[in-house]
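job 3f2a | input accepted
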Amino acid sequence: MEETAPALHSSGSTDVECHACIGKKRKAEQTCIECEESYCEHHLSIHNSLHVGKRHRLMELNAVVRENICPDHGKKLFVFCRTDQVCICHLCITDKHRGHVAIPVEEEVANKQIKLGELQKRAIDIIETKEKDVQELRQAVELFKASAIKALEKNEKNFTELIQSIKDNQSKVKELIQGQTNFAVKEVEGFIKTLQKEISNMRTLDADLQRLQLLSHSSTDVQFLERTVSLPSLIEYKKPFVFLVHPYNSFERDSMAVNELIEKLNTTSKLSLLMISRKVANTKILRLPPPETQKEFLKFASKLTFNTNSAHKSLILRNENKEVKASHLLQDYPEHTQRFNCRVQILCKEGLRGSPKYWEVEIGGGTWICVAVSYQGICRKGKQRTLFGRNDQSWGLRCKHAQIEFWHDNEITFTKFPSYCSKIGVYLDYRAGILAFYNVSDNMSLIYKHNTVFKEPVYPGFGLAGNGSYVRLCDPVKKETSVSSPFNFF
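job 3f2a | predicted structure (490 res):
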């Protein structure tokens, strides 16, 4: 009986079981290709005896064959279970994988081949992109090194010239001291010679007077008077000079002036070195990429306040100078050198530089609104080249109802026809020279990014055209609420 056949050896966990064994399954030795079943040594002889006339082809269970045979049923694995992501036989469908999603192996192979092709193409694209990045990084390194060499050469030249200038000044001061010494000494020596000559004359006169004095005792009065008829007249001697020697007029004061110069140079040098060290520390090849989400941008949020002294008289301000609206009624603002007198524009108080900054504004109404940054020195008077973006002192994104333009130095460098932007975010990386505008209303989609080199602090500014146009500076800390217009109270 098949059931009482001796157990040759049990099937291991990685072996194919004999499909004919009942109860405890034994290890299959060969597989019949025609029957698609595997048999142990005992049942293999029975199988062969049943097919003596038409002998079936048998195959040894090598590693490859074992992988293609179901270990539970000894059947060929020609079905793929998508639920469990394994290959199964047709008996498994009604057994352990009942109710699972199953497709032919060939179909799954075709699907995987398509996915592998897509992955391979994507991998090649990533490789090419990274290789391009490597190439660009190497070029950046070479440019950075060249820049460093150029800076070192220029610094060497500048410091050499500075040292030579100091040496020249040292020589000039030395010449001045020596020249003044020679002049002053020569002047005094001239006085000494004059005094010595006068002293010699006075000694001669004194000798003559002494002789006359003796004559008064040894001669007659008549003789004495005859000799003293033409006596010289002497006036009181007054010094023709004043001694101005230490501490009033010595070279100690000159040394003090040199010491003061050295102290100023040292102070300036230390401050300059500190500034240079900061700039050198910020000179890098790689920078972190700009933020992508609003949450990331808000890490660089800056609080802004309108500068009332710069506001055109057509602008109405309120809410602690964070809201502004264009009106046909002129406001009674006092005259000020910072005030725009022809263009309906306004600047903020805060000058921005250094680390990245970010701010948001709500805009609306009127004809157009310009969101800009500007140097403090922008012209405020008249119409000629005072509009934001129409000069080399400012950069402006002009937002119309159905069009956006970017202006700088009176040239338009960007035009787009997007959906209307009611809330705009501005990102400024001063050191990297990046000025970027984002549509906050459209999930921070990039409107335009401009690259430049800023030479001094920039101030956020706004231009408004048309009665009723408005700008509101958003608070980066508080949760902003959506409003149709913050100026309904007008």
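job 3f2a | The chain is about 35% helix and 20% strand.
job 3f2a | closed
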